[in-house]
Amino acid sequence: MPKRHRIMLAKAGLDGHDRGVRVVAMGLRDANFEVIYTGRRQTPEHIVNAAIQEDVDAIGLSILSGAHMTLFAKILELLKAKEADDIVVFGGGIIPPDDAQELKQMGVKHIFGPGTAMDTIVGAINQTLEQREAK
Amino acid sequence: MDKDKLAGLYQQWNQGPVEQALKKTPERANCAHTPAGIPNERIYTPLNLDEAGFDYAKDLGFPGQFPYTRGRDPLGYRSNYWLFMQYAGCGDAEEANKRYRYLLSQGQAGISVAFDLPTQVGLDSDDPMADGEVGKIGVAVSSLQDLETVFEGIPLNKLRQISLVANAMSSIILAMFLALAEKQGVPVDECTLRIQNDVLKEFISRGAYIFPPEPSIRLTTDVVTYCAQNHPAWLPITLCGYHIREAGANAVQEVAYCLANGLAYMDEVARRGAPMERVLPQLSAFCAVNMNFFEEIAKFRALRRLWARLVRERYGVGPEVNLGLSLVNFTAGSSLTAQQPMNNIVRVAVECLAGVLGGCQSLFPCSMDEAFATPTEAAVKVALRTQQIIANETGIGDTADPMGGSYYLESLTSEIEKRALKMIEEIEALGGSVKAIDQGYFRRNIDEASYQWQKEVDTGARSIVGVNAYQEADEAPMEIFRPPAETQERQIARLRKLREERDNDRVQKALEQVKAVAATEENLIPALTEAARAYATMGEICGVLRSVFGEHNEGDI
What we know:
By secondary structure, chain A is of the alpha/beta class. Chain A has five helices and five strands; from the N terminus they run E-H-E-H-E-H-E-H-E-H. Chains A and B meet through helix 1 and helix 3 of A and helix 5 and helix 18 of B.
């Protein structure tokens, strides 16, 4: 039986729009992931510390407020500083396509925009985590 | 026609032509229910209205009269169109001022001020938590100085309406606005001020809360009672269904939760002895216009009727009091797609039609590019023109409530009202909205509805063009609005300069006074207004209030 992956879903910064992240939480649970959701208004420090403590395989960040470039960058930096950058980072929300490209170059594995099907999200995360384990 | 005769004809039709047609082509599965789960019959006739006990005088009446099903205004749109509005605000105060002047020059009648997230949750622009959020989804207002700049060259009394999207910090924004009116020296009552001021929906859905629910309601009612006494023509609270709907609730839940919150506020306002015959006519509701055309139109009519019926009895006001909610309708941001975004122009137009047919007093269309970012000026202009076309070219406003009397629409209106009332009774049985929030009632039901919706889209039971139907592999990129990069730095520099230059003794005294009044039951608005005049900042004032009221935190699920 394949390993059950642990995923932390988080709302960083001040954005309160959490319909997307809550739906993804329910979808990932139904797809046999173990999901920890941080709730709103978390600092990058809190998210990274909790992710390390909970020994998660991936962090999914939801941002609809436009603060994505600042907040993703902080999370990636902190993971690196704490030598935890084997944790996969992905995200979603209202993120312009150019920014999504830039975030991927920075090390964010996936950006799921509005209208992404749950199957697509589950498939992409599974594939990324399998590749990570094969290394 | 005789009822039995009609029933006979209906049966003949169902067993004859319908049966034959069904043999050739079965019905689509997705026409069986509205998105809120109300069954759609094959056709609606007077029989449906009879079955529901429909009575014209009791259930519809006339526009401007109880129960307000056909509208709040006796003339509908025959004298004035609804207000063409546009939610706007971004960057710092100077950038927002520029955008507002542009919109006013294009024929917009009022201004709706969007605040950035730090401002909405009571933080100054230089707070560490504000990093990256300053000026992003609205304008940064850390003090009266910023608000002065926002309205530079725009005399308040020259606008038909100013709408402030202020909730958890509405009392402070009202205070800043009062101080601004003093500075401008204009007769401020010539302009209608609308304040969103619905904090409960922040706990239920939107998330921009500051203090716990109980002190939050106190601040809300301070605003309502202050305005009722001093500016009776203003609209000091707007009951919000929009954010609840956008969080995933269906149309019935939207009506029910919005009105249940309204009862929670009005109970408190009544308890504090405010004149209800003055407060109730100034109420507005702010709801979403989504894509299911008829369910949405029926929803607005049901919302007005149910509210009027609930409050007339509850607060015992006489028939002379206008209980028709003023409707602020906003097209549903969540119905916009990132796929083939030009199609969103059509979605917005259809939603605008439903919003107007529902009898709105003001209408906010979304812009086509909002699935990516804050809209560009060009996209905003298309949205504004959309409602101008609807008003001027379609004849939609030439008679009041043109959809009234439709068998289908009246049946849906009654059904939505009935189902929403049942939910409100459920909430009341839990002890009202605040208790229901504590028990997770709203989040649980909204989560269920939003996940259900997502599953229907994922399985294809519900089709959305460009998303799960008629997709295109390669799409042309769209021009996206870029907030100016230097906004945050500039805003922080200005704020720090202000803190050095103002009279800090006056600020300290004003803050101490706010703290003292917060601990009593006295209305906080006068003390907050003095703090605003002294240029105390949003963060400083909220800091003082946090020390008295505490802070709300959301736990893990």
